[in-house]
Design a protein that fits this description.
single chain, alpha/beta, Collagenase (Catalytic Domain), nine-stranded mixed beta sheet, 11 strands, 22% helix
């Protein structure tokens, strides 16, 4: 039987324009979400064993990321970000941004006094009773425009998380896992704990950590659900040396402070200048690398 010409014409159009597949009519599979999106509290084993990747020429390692802090953040060390919905727990969460200023800049504001535990001791909490209830992995993109070695940065950040775990006598932080950093989530959480370098929009800001938490209901129901951390590479040069370097911010020094915020710690009183969680830092400073008595007492009080 001869097939009519118009039928052959229609079939040819189908193949040409629509890619018809008479053998398999299944829909294409969706992309699988990253480990941090599907299960933030467990380690799936996908990590760089050495912590290093092939290093590009330092001139090619710059990043275009830019963190735009809200106007209210200008000169304020803690900023309330409002409410959202956590994509994993589906519960209402509130966001707080902790901003680390260079010494001599920034101030303790009304918001900070509201969210911190009132105490004469040299430690403070994000909110009374707010802490992690599961071990948290994180994603770190060490790309930077200061020529810092990626493996060294990864090691120093990991050392900071391990030290807070040790002093808390709890497994607060897990390990760095593979995943894509989407930039800090200033408006809504995305289910990933992310760390990266960027140009921060406000002057004299060394770094910033944003924490999302469930703060309503009974104390046992409250908990942190996400954190993100950003180091300012626009206004500050950074050092990863064993000793502080003049004219540079010490990465380990600042990372230890920021990880404290991610664990649920706040800024202590302004006269607690020797604590890692003291709200300001200075050039070549290294004393925050080692947790002080107030830091240790605080993290143990929070995770007891």
């Amino acid at each position: 039987m001869k097939v009519p010409a118009f039928v052959l014409f229609i079939i040819s159009l189908c193949f040409a324009f629509y890619g018809c597949n008479f053998k398999n009519n299944e829909k294409p599979a969706l992309n699988t979400p990253s480990v941090q999106q599907t299960d933030r509290g467990h380690d799936d084993g996908h990590r760089d064993a050495s912590g290093s990747k092939k290093q590009a020429n330092p001139k090619d390692r710059s990043t275009s990321r830019r963190l735009l802090l809200p106007k209210i953040a200008d000169n304020s060390s803690v900023v309330y970000l409002g409410k959202s919905v956590d994509p994993i727990t589906k519960k209402t969460v509130e966001g707080i941004a902790f901003i680390c200023y260079e010494k001599g800049f920034g101030k303790t504001n009304k918001t900070e006094k509201q969210v911190h535990k009132e105490s004469s001791k040299c430690y403070a909490f994000l909110v009374e009773g707010i802490k992690w209830k599961s071990t948290e992995n994180y994603i770190f993109d060490p790309t930077n425009n200061r020529g810092l070695n990626h493996a060294t940065l990864r090691s120093l950040l990991a050392n900071s998380t391990k030290e807070w775990n040790k002093q808390a006598e709890a497994d607060i932080f897990g390990v760095e896992v593979d995943g894509e950093v989407d930039n800090v989530d200033a408006l809504v959480p995305n289910g990933k704990n992310e760390v990266y370098f960027a140009a921060i929009s406000i002057d004299k800001v060394i770094a910033m950590t944003m924490v999302w938490r469930i703060s309503e209901g009974l104390i046992e129901q409250r908990r942190i659900t996400e954190w993100d951390m950003v180091f300012n590479q626009k206004d500050y040069d950074w050092s990863t040396e064993a000793k502080g370097v003049s004219g540079k911010m010490d990465f380990h020094n600042i990372a230890m402070h920021e990880v404290g915020h991610a664990a649920g710690m706040g800024h202590p009183d302004d006269d607690c200048v020797d604590e890692t969680m003291y709200g300001h830092a200075n050039w070549a400073e290294t004393k925050k690398r080692d947790l002080n008595a107030g830091d240790i007492a605080g993290i143990r009080d929070l995770y007891k």
